[in-house]
Protein 1
Amino acid sequence: MLRTWMREGNHWVWFNAMAVAISLLAVIGLISFIVFKGMGHFWPKDIHAYTVQDGQGGTVQLIGELHRRSDRVEGNIKEGVTHVPQLLVKVGNRDIFGADFKWVDEHAVIKDITAKDLIMVERYEWGNLYGRLKSVTLGDGMTVTGNQAWDTFQQLIERHTELHKQIVRIQKHEIGAINAGVEQLRLDRRRLELDNKLTEQAIAKLDEKRRQLDGEYQTLLTQMRQLEQTASALGKAQIEIMTGDVVTLPIDKIVESVMPNAMTLTEKFGHYFHRIWVFLSDDPREANTEGGIFPAIFGTVTMVFIMTVLVMPFGVVAAVYLREYAKDGWITRAVRISVNNLAGVPSIVYGVFGLGFFVYVLGHNIDQLFYQEALPAPTFGTPGLLWAALTLALLTLPVVIVSTEEGLARVPRAMREGSLALGATKIETLWNTVLPIASPAIMTGLILAIARAAGEVAPLMLVGVVKLAPSLPVDSIAPYIHLDRKIMHLGFHINDVGFQSPNVEAAQPLVYATAFLLVLIIIALNITAITIRNRLRERFKSVDN
Amino acid sequence: MSSTALQMQSARRERMRGYKDFIAKYAIGIGGMAVIGAVLLMMFFFFYQVAPLFSSATMEKVATYDRPGQSKTVMLAVDEYQDTALRITEDAKIVFFKAKTGELVETISLPVAEGVAVSSYHVLDDADGQVALGLSNGQLLLAEYGFAVSYVDGVRQIKPRFSYPLGEAPMVMDAQGRALAHVSGRASGDTMVLVGSPKGAPVVEFRAFELKKAMFSDEVSLEQVAANQVPLAFVPEWVKVDGMNDWFYAIDSTGDMQVFSIRNVDAPKDYARLNTLPVDGKEKRQLTSVNFLLGGISLLLGEESGKLTQWFPVRDANNQFTFQAVRDFDEQSAAITDMAVEQRRKGFVLSDASGHVGVYHATAHRVVGLEQVAQSAITNIAMTPRADGFLAEDQQGKMHLWSLENEHPEVSFEVLWQKVWYEGYAKPDYIWQSSSSASDFEPKFSLAPLAFGTLKAAFYAMLFAVPIAIMAAMFAGFFMAPKMRQAVKPTIELLEALPTVILGFLAGLWLAPYLEKHMPSFFLLVLLMPLMVFIFGYLWSRFPEAIRNRVPDGWQAALLIPVLLLSVLIAVWLDDPVEHLLFAGDMPMWLTNVAGIDYDQRNALVVGIAMGLAVIPIIFSIAEDAIYNVPRHQVNGSLALGATPWQTMVGVVLPTASPGLFSATMIGLGRAVGETMIVLMATGNTAVMDIDIFNGLRTLSANIAVEMPESEVGSTHYRVLFLAALVLFMFTFFFNTIAETVRQRMLKRYGAL
């Protein structure tokens, strides 16, 4: 029986089916893994208070979140090895303990309680703090203890958050604008000097402007100092940490504080979405390992947008040329070979080209011609947004060309001929008939190009993406879109935080969350593109018949 | 409006339409050409960046003039801008002159007694201009020369200076007052070693000093810590102290060499004796010039025949040093009279008795230029600090200033692709090590380990991806139910859209540590999966029809998902027992200690799996198209003749689709070769040449990503990275072209069917 079954090759069919199943499992497994890990990060985890034997007869207390489980190897290879299960506890308080995490042997844990009064405090510096709130001292010296302490604590934090927002606004936007103005004045002066037009009059005018800016700066500075004073006078919280010591924490060092063990499910969900929002809308802190990823999202979107503007005309024109104008001959063949090769070239090679040609040749010459006043500091002669977008435009050009060509090929001959027969010129036919019909295909190409560009990292590492950009590429200072600025990027953020950060273990959940966001964006883009393409195909099936 | 006006208007509009059409035609044509332009520009730009690596040096005469000043030249030096030069002459004078005209600037007398001549010199430090001068009365004088640069109204002014920071008084080396025929020495850290050998005597006077810095000023003084007279086996022609104060070498013109270890300055140890000029049957060989290369490790021995040999100490397994001839240069045909070494690279120039000057690079084993500079023998040659020119003096008292354009002598075919013997290494090897903090560092630009790493990563990725992708394509394109296919194909293709940075991150931070802990479960899974599937498949055929008929044909893959999940569970469950049973409880440890295989956490296996996952959808997609497009009538014919589906697959479908499968594999390979982020994150990026699956690797692409941002524009390193990118470009160009050609052929064949 078995022999016949095998002679017919049935087992091979099953093996083939296995390959499909493996591929499917890999895709689904990968995506669910990222979703699970990425979404889990924001859930308010319970805080445990472990009582652990310290190995010398005594016990110590550990307060923190259970980060993950693992095991450690004991013994050596000759006498046999045993694996001892361990817990990795995130105990926070990096400023006191030196590290965020502690390993504990599972069998050494004698008591594990999740007391309701345990709190987690997220701070602007030094990461989280875990412990119990003892009392809150207000700015006027009044001390609140007991049940009211928590409510007062929350109110104070809320008030500080408001103040903090105002301070950041002044610091980043208004003072930033003044600094940009001062820099501009310096450049203007240098420009005039280079043109030999630096007259007494001009100097006086520049100095006048400078004085004006200085005045504004002083006003803002006083304003900011006042706010900071108010913030620091809000009060202090006394928190008992796991060693039993009481730590005094000024309110203006606190981002937020929660009591997860006492939260109801609804509260947890509320907090969950709040944290997702913070993640999406906040700036990163602590070498990118905490806070949000807003600049990375913003940088990615801006760069992709500029890339789209650059790649679309070129891609569409090239496809139209290939499909509508070119006669079959060596030129067409050469273009096709070029497109094919562009598609096959490794992305890092584009990066090298972008750096060598765009940045160092084009950028350098642009600086020499138009930004002489800023030299020797390069303006465009250094990696930046424009070059990143241009490099990716080159990289995604084949995607747009191939997709547009496919769309053009699907436009029925009858429509073209109809238009020509009515006396329209070729370009009129193209513009009014062919391109509108093929527009979904062009859209598909663009979306696929965007998806590709959003996920590409290797070339960007060379042409303009940095781990931490001081300012966004678009802001309220003229010329509003700063093509010369360096940007942050989601994909690079993953690489950087996951591999280069000083605290990889603590940053990992954030990396998973970023990865999840990136996957979400790219899958959404791809599904949109595929849907549009399928619809297009369906529509012209009926026309063809 | 009259009808003529209307007609005119209409005619004008017609004309405008014509123009528009005309303009559009050319504008679009130009747009199409721009794509070719972009590809050509890329290609051209890469070659343009790489070409200077392989070009020769250009040597040009700047000036020739009569020697300024009197007496014989002992030492020559030129400043950084080729503005001022100096001669230290035998009659104890320092003559400063304009390097381009020979115009005398200043003549200074050395602070020595009347009638004392300078008999030998040694440059202790190029950067500070520190020299040791051996005198005819057996004394030694330490001095410093320099060229102070200042700008007056934006015009550069060079003012030469000559000073004695360690005191004007010469120190006595030979108590008997014989002339010092040779002096040498080296200051490293706060110790200084000086040696001198009296004329005609087989001894070397050896002195070691400690440099004492004064408390409140920059003044430095010497405190003698050791003084020895070292007897030699012969009368030396050259005495040289190496760059680390480890050795000094005494050499005579017959090539006899005696090496002393001076790690212990109190007792220089006679370490080795050898002859550097083995007689090879032909005429007698003779040494005519000896010098150290930059860094003071390699000795360059120039011969009467114009040949030059590079020697350096090589440490063996027992920590003993042997002195080896590493490479030789045999370009010049007259006796080597003098040599000058570059101060920032491992390059040097040789002058010979026929007036020729050759420009060389040691590591690259390359002659970058050779020109006739003088009509008679050149007696002295000096190089500018930037290695962009040299000053030579010939026997007839003429000075020759030449400029030298020699940007990239460090690269040669040998350096890039062959084994090279580097200073400090036990044997020739392939090594990539592009930069270091030390200024006398020997850059190692071997692309071989990087290309090897690239192919290794691609190989393991393909090993994982090809079977899965092709088999999945076979099932999806032939056996699978159409409804399932509609869902499965886009799902697998979704994997292609997944950014590789995410795959790399998961591989590096999750898979690599996981595999390290649960290595056996992976291998168990590889064994278990086919076994379980086989058993399940057979059992399925034995199932009652009622159950079997519920699942339509072509849905086997869906049935297998629980089976596979079950085998994953079993593999994970068996992991610990198997590890204890076979691998003493810890497989990586077992591999290192028992099997003797080095285990890196981020190894080729991890890369293979991660990059395999990235490549599977590409191969799958193209291969599936090829199988799906096999003409239906062929398949039906085979089935009608009684072949089973699998027999039809093997006998009819596969042969027809094989070009498509091949082309799919090639495109996948091209992708694997160029992939950057996965290898960057999932390997340790160590440039080793080792095919072992548990070892790390470094690929061309990852190397570019790591080093490109830090490399200086236009430097050799920068251009070598461009070359790496070009190699990558060529690799993928090659694979893509093969794939495309095969695919075109296949399309033609399908057209015929």
Note: The longest helix of chain B spans residues 3-50.
Protein 2
Amino acid sequence: MTTTAITQAEIDAVFPTVAETMADALGCDVEDITPNVSLIEGLDAESIDFLDMVFRLERAFKIKIPRGKIVENARGNLTETEFEQKGIVSEVGMAQLKAYLSEVPADRFKSPMKVADIPRLFTPETFCKLVVQAQRDAKAA
Amino acid sequence: MSDHFAAFSFVDRITGLVPGTRAHGSFAIPAGIASFPPCLMAEAVGQLAAWVAMSHIEFRGRPVAALARETRFVRAAKPGQTLDLAVEIEDCDDDAVAYRGWADIDGARAIELSDCLGPMLPAAEFDDPLAMRERFAVLNDGGAAPGRFHGVELPRVTRDGGVPGSSAQGTLAVPVSAPFFNDHFPRRPVFPATLMLDAQIALALALAHESAHWPAGTPLSPARMTHVKVRSFTPPGAQLAVGAQMRPGADGEATVMLSAQADGKSVATARVVITERKLQ
């Protein structure tokens, strides 16, 4: 499957609503939601917050975001076994992950990286991309 | 009589079911109990949603209380009355269930929940899936025997800090044992989040009664609870550090920000709006 890269203009278009939605879910000020802050390490988000944010974003944008979609999107064209082995992201998987999460500074990608730790990398911009992709999928359907 | 499906179970009968989509049910509040607080009505609605969700995924998982955007308290429920329950499932899979629902008493709305979301956890960790399947069949086929619930002792917060009428801190001592732990849940006892929220509402009301925001003696009651987020399970015997902060508002209302922590970690947060009226 070939997909056109998500543009900065598309991200900028959804960011204000994403930030407002996230601030409400996390109980913080909207000013705290900068595009590249780590949701877990910077804003103390937990797994229940991710569920909450996805639910709220679905409502706010009238889109459907299948759970686990971020990791699926990050995997791109790689199969699950190409992307990870025994819960650890493979070398080719890491390259794909870095390309997908291009907004995340390189030093935040630990090696070896557990698949379970991928959410530690997520930022508001990651969710913007998720929203944009869901909007594109909805239009294509 | 066993406490299982009795001591903390609030659906007697499922009267209409569209699998995975919606359901109607009922619960007869036993006449002999002391009270049936609003949070237990919310629990009843949530339990009906849980039955629909669990059956939809073949009892592989069970939802747990996590998020409720808004709960509106409209009328009080009295022992001897019957709750007519309804839920609409907005989304349900092996990961989570999203739903809205309500309870009516004598044809009038008593409570309404919207934008609720509960993650699914492995059902077998909490109860015997076979027993749950059998119970679901009973609820759908004539219903369970009424009068199984014998009331519940409602834990209350012991205050130890704060500014009267403005803020409060205290401890909610979760009982080490209670009949409801045998039902919620048989394989993994968990303090029901609705009982924690009930204690927090009681604290918020106490704070509101002390406040100068209303003239002394004004009847006050919870109008709605919003932003409920339960982050972790509370086991029997836990000591919860509870906080409440009042923010006076307009039109005879005030919002009380609620928090509960265990060992310094957030267990739950919520807001309750207190209004100038007596819940009928």
Note: Chain B touches chain A at residues 66-67, 93, 95-96, 98, 115, 117, 119, 227, 229-231, 269 (CB under 8 Å).
